[in-house]
Amino acid sequence: MTRIISPTPRPPSFLGRFVPARLRAVWFDALSLLMALGDRRTPPLARLIALAALIYAVSPIDLLPDSIPVLGVGDDLLIVPALLAFAARSLPSAVLAEARFKADRFAGHRRWLVPAILSGVLLIGLGVAYLLIKGIGAVFGG
């Protein structure tokens, strides 16, 4: 029987200080599953469930619309991790252990990735807001 390798403890990164431990664990599991999808030993059911989780996460169609203040985001926070956990449980233990090792190695080398993505999204959001304000000012301001 193959032993599952748990991630090595590291000091929290810049973003890790602000993100709850459970969310970091879900992120690590999702990254592990992504690493496992490239393995030919991964069963088709796990691939299908992971694809369903990805589609549900990016789809504008939800069980509860995101316009409902807490519940709209809450269904995403429950369904997507549940699908990812179900997909991870359908993996053979050797594939899961190897994928967790790869994810741990990747996460250790890419500490700058999440802050860089968040910074990029923030800059794009500010640019779009500026263009919207400028456009609205041109329409109504004359």
Automatic annotation (TrEMBL):
Annotated Gene Ontology cellular component terms: endomembrane system
Cell compartment(s), UniProt = Endomembrane system
Residue ranges crossing the lipid bilayer per the database entry: 45-64, 70-91, 112-133
Check the record and name the InterPro entries matching this protein.
DUF1232
UniProt keywords (A-Z) are: Membrane, Transmembrane, Transmembrane helix
Membrane topology term reads: Multi-pass membrane protein
Domain DUF1232: start-end pairs: 46-81
Q: Does the keyword Cytoplasm apply?
A: no
Q: What is this protein called?
A: DUF1232 domain-containing protein
Organism of provenance: Deinococcus ruber
